Every structure is written in structure tokens, then in C-alpha cells.
């Protein structure tokens, strides 16, 4: 196709040549007079200084009579506007005040027009509302275009019949050669008229030509001449445009239209990039001329209105509302919603007798998550009368008039939010104080599918202030009217407060908002990410992790849906109420369309079995009792929570007393010369650790006390070395060698004096043959006991840190926690030294059995039983091996800690197993749902 139709000289007929044809050049010729030959300019170019090089082609054309479309007679003027009674045409919109025949505007009152006197209004004053009365006619034409026309195949690009012509593109940008440069020209200036109402090649005997018709297309905004058919059998003008794939701006004498292509392009582009209509429209305006010399007619407001009509009709078509007469008028609330196929829908995807199988009823539970988004606020622009929603409660937003009437009736009956019994949450504190001057809506609240992040029908609405309970109640109860199962799990940031007196408030609401669920069939939880900011009681009572039959659901689904729509905030905040709701409805529908179901794994089942096996030998009776406590609490939430600790936090004085007692014990060491080999090794082990203690405190401010302690230990080491000469005589050579290497007059620090215990000497590989096996064997058993004792001390300090979290944060508390943390790190370092010594003596003796209960201690292994302070989540938390080995646990604190961790480990295993069961059921429901809707369309 030759897109640049350029000519030289004066006016000439326009030929659009199809260069794709090999046999002949096919043209669309608009002659000015009868002629036999036409000289067509193929191209022209400047060649050096010699002039212009031009290539022309002479084409023979059969003369034909001048069509009526090309006569010089002016077209018949459009008839004068006729005034109608709007209330008789706009069925279903009688509630709007401006449609009242006796309605008088404030401007008319100001000019002395008497109120109450009937004043007829032209339909062109409200084109969007007039369009709603012809919505079914538009739908019929859209479906007609998709049907084959008389068996003739059509081009999918321009929809012209495939015959002699394949494409007819009247919106091309053309240029005129002036002799020195190409000048911008339009086909309308060249007398090209786009004829409607007839097939290509047929002439209209009575055309009505509009010489300044605006068409918005993907390559710009065009001014064309549009010829409407005015024959006896002609159809309405808007229908003529629709059948040419042009969407009319109005239904009364349209002067503007948009191509279906540009409407579909913007709709999909806005879904993917969230581009605004303003940016898109002005991009089109720059495509034809980016210099600013040619300014196209401003049709931005018209484009907005056309897009709303297009999106609304596309949604109606998507749900099959155009195949039966009257189906649009008979729609019920929530019908234009793409529902989650994985959620349970009675009468759609649940098996027969699903409500009778008590053991599997939890698989058919509906998960709902609620949240507010204050970024999607809206300014006080327009009103419901001038900008109503086209969906009117058929989609995701609730019906606005019914919602506002509900707020007026029950806003004063329902008491103000009670004082919070949890932390000072903004959602409760600012429930009645958000918003400001100029804001019509402070945000939106939505109810989504808690497992698959999909918007629910009749679940979205505007917020007038903050997160008031009455708004929350209405949105939740509205979506529950849409065919829901009896069991629910509702997740909400402040569920711990909102659920109180919920059914007391519900009892005051109208009957159409009464839910089919009983109070005891609803479980209220707090999303996992929001839970840590609640008090400890709420963390235990409203936790997903501690609740049975919820799988790995996190309750944070609304946050993910808001992330996909927040980019619309800059556009929607400037819209009127109806435009804003219809735009968000369209994007929510596309978001639901693109959702997928996630998968999970059951890795923690094996972890729970491992932990339970470790406890079984020492705490078999306790495990039976713990299991009974968990089952009782899962059936009745009013029973004691097995996940909540009952011991009071350790006080600061108690922690200080425990640390002082341990520090005194460290220096209480005595050396006796008349000792057995085992006593000799035991005394050496007692001296080894104080050396590291003195070394670790060598920079302490209390240098005097540290030095005195070092002196005492130094004397005891010298006495022990004298005994060592008896059992390990070759170590005398090692001590002598160390003295020789030391500079004269330099005093050695106590921490630097090597003891050369058997494990140390064996690692040096210097005196192995002179060490008695009895001494090595004694160290083996003493080291094994020392390793388990060190692990027990490490666990005690970790528990001390856990139960000290109840202290208020402050300088003294931070110093205390630092002391506890220092003890923990010292215990870990001590165990690593003991483990290294065990490896040395076991290698010499060929003994490997000790490794069955001990392992190398890594940094990530040193953590307590609590999980909120860990980097991983509760469901991903894996218990360290130090809590699974040699658990004696005689003290009450350790017993309770083990009990709570057993409950959590069991919980983690069950949640993953439940997730697998839920996913299996959801996959089945997805398949059944698709089969159901497939049968519905076929039927």
C-alpha cells in the first residue's frame, strides 16, 4: 500500500495504490471529471543541481459517472435538535435528580426561572446517560460484527471484504509537493469522503456529508469527511459508525468517533503499564504533528466517555450478556465479576455431600482477607448525578446509592469504635479522624480471596474517614451474599478488635445483609506480617501459624493486590465517582484474570518427626499431655492457649543474681598434690576455662580485680604443672622450650601459659608415645561430660534471654541483655574447644561413638526456641540440633520451653500438610469450575 499519497502541482484526484498486487495496480479513485487516463506520480526527489527527478505512471481508467457523493451540491443540513422527555427513555435512572421533569438548576433559579415548572432538556446535555438507554443496541451491533457476513471472508485488519480490494485506510498521513518541499495534507482536503451505510464500491444516492468529522485512531487524531447514508432504507448514524468499527461519541448526530483498534489498544496498555488516558490521548495528538503547528480538535473528554462505554460493553460481552434480549436489564448484583476458580463455590465446584463429610469440611472453608488502601483516595470532583457508575453494583464495587443510604440509616445507631485492648493501632485510633477538606473519599476498602489474591464480588467501596467498623461490616456482609460456604476464615489487621460485638452489630442491620454463617463457624485471624506489632496475647490467639486447618495461608493477600493497582492513584484521584469506580472495576477484573495458584511443599513434616523422636525417650508422658492440650484448644479457643508461656518473665534482679553466682563459681578451684590420674585431668579442665575468662576480661575497666584473679589462677597452674610431671613427664620439655623462647625479664600472662592436656599434646603430635592411655581415657569421658554440660549451660542462657524479653527497653536492660549475650557466646566458644579436644582423643583411641549425640556448633545453631526474633518466619523456622540432644529438662522453665516448642514444631508440620491437602482440593475445584462455565456457554 502506498501510504504517502504525494502529488505535484494543483488539485488532482487521489489514488491509493495497492503495490502488493503483482498483476495490476488496484486503486481507489475519486475523479473530479470524466477522463480516460491518469498520470500517477510514483515518487519525486532532488538530484544534485539538475533539478527534480520524477517518476510517473500512466494508467488507463474506464470513465464512470460522477457519484452523488462527489457533487458540488452542499449536503442537506442536519435537522434541528429535537427535545425529548428524558425520564421516559432512561429506564432505571429515574432516581437521578437532574432527570426530574420539574428539576430546576441553580443557574436557572438565579436568572428568575420559576422552580417546579417543567423545562424540556436536550438529550445532548447528558450523552453518557443517553447511551445507557441504547446499551443493548450497541451490544447487538458488536456481536453482529463478529459474525460472518453472508459467508464472505473479511480482512482482520480493516474488516473490508476480500475481493478486488483488501484494505481501505482513509486515515493515512499524506503530503503535497509544493515544488520545494512536502507540505502536510489530509485526505479530507483532497475531497476524500468516507461513505458509510453501503458496501465498498456501492454508491449512496443521497449521502449526508459532515466535512469536519473527528476520528481518533492509533496513529493520530484525524479530521475527515464522513458521509452518512440518507437513503430510504438507511439505518441510524451511530449504527452506521459501529458497523464500520467506529465508536460514536454520541447517539444524537455524532461528530466524533474512535476506532475499535485504538480503544482496545488503550485498554490493554492501561492494564499492563497503568498509563493514564491523558498521557495516551496527547501522545496520539503528537503523532500526526509533533511541532505544535497543527493542533487537532480537543476531544479528550469525549475519549474518556467513549472508553468508559467501551470497557463497560466489553465486560458485558465477556459475561455473555448480549446473546439474549433483555439480559442486560436483568443483571443481578455481582454478575460482572471474574470469580476465583480455586475458592469453594456451592452448586459450582463442590462435590456432592460436601457438607456432610465432617472430617473434610475444613477443605471447603472460604478464606477472606480485608484491608484498606488510603492511596486510592479521590478528590471531591463531580457527583453521583453527573457521573454515575455504569456498573452500578454489578462488579466489584458495591452499589453506591444503597451504600450511602446504609451509612445514613445506621451511622448513628452503631456505636463508635470501643477502646482498643491491644496496642495503639492507627486503624483503630484514626477510624473517625482521617480525611480532609476537598476529599470525597479517603481511600477504598476491599475484601479479597485470602489464598489466591483475587477480588471478591461486591467487596470494594469508598471510605469517608478512616477504617470505621460500619464500612467494614457492609463490605464483608455484601460479599457474603454471593453464594458462600458456611465456614469462613477472615483475616484483618485489627481482627482482634473488629470481631468483638460483630454479631451484635449485625443483628441491627437489614435482613438482606444477614449472613448465612453462624458465629462459631467464623475464625478471625491477623495477617502474619502485621501480627508482631500486637500484644503477646493477640499474637497467640490470632496467629495463622497456631490455627489448625489453614495451611500456609499468610493473610497478606490485600497487600499484593494493592501493589498492582497503586499506580492508578494519580489518575483515579482526579476522577468523578462513577469514572473512578468503573476504572478500578476494569483493572480488578484484569487482575483476577491473570492470577495463578501457587504451590507449596511439606518439608517440615520430617522436621517435626525428628524433634518428637528426640523428646520421646525423656518426655513421653509430657508429650501425651501436650497433645491433649493442643487438641482441646483447637476445638475451643476459650481454653488455655498451649502456645502461650505461663511463667512470668525473669526479673532484672534474678538475672543479676544468677550471673554473680556463676562468676563466683568460676574462681572456686583448688589443687591437691595427692591426686589420681582422673583427678589430675579434672583439675586441668577446671584450670583451662578460667584462662579464657581472664583473657576475655583483659580490657575490662576493673583491671585491679582482673589482675588479682589472674594471680590466683597463675599459682594454681604452677601447682598443677608439678603434678603433670608425674603423669606426663615429656611435657617438661615442652614447658622448658617455651621458657627458652621467652625474652628474659618478660612476665608471661596467665592466659598464655599452655597446660598441654593430653588432647593438646596429641594435636601437637609430640609426646603421644609417652602419654598413659589411662590419662587419655580419663580425658575422653570427662570431655564428653563437659560437652553435654556446656550445651545445657548454653540452653539455660538462651532460655534466660528468652524469658527476659518482658523487661522494658532501657539502658540498664540493654546492659543486662548484653551480659547474657556475652555468656551465650562464651558457652558456644567453650563447646567448640571441647569438641576439638574430643576429636583429638577419640582419634588416638579409635573411638567414634561419641559423635552420635554431638555435632559441630555453627553460628546459626546458637538460637533460642522463640521464632519472632529470627530471620526466618515461623512456618520456615527449623529447630537447632542443640535442643534435640540429651534433654534432661528438670527445671520448670525448660519443661515449658520444650512444651511450647513441641507445639510449634507440630504446628509447622501440620500447616504444611494442610497446605498440600488444600492445594490438591483447589486444583480439583479449578478444573470443575472451568467445566461448569464451559457447559454454561455451550448450553
UniProtKB/TrEMBL annotation:
Residues 187-292 form the CxC2-like cysteine cluster KDZ transposase-associated domain. It holds the Pfam family KDZ. It comes from the Eukaryota. InterPro entries: CxC2_KDZ-assoc, KDZ. PANTHER family: CXC1-LIKE CYSTEINE CLUSTER ASSOCIATED WITH KDZ TRANSPOSASES DOMAIN-CONTAINING PROTEIN, CXC2 DOMAIN-CONTAINING PROTEIN. This is CxC2-like cysteine cluster KDZ transposase-associated domain-containing protein. It comes from Armillaria tabescens.
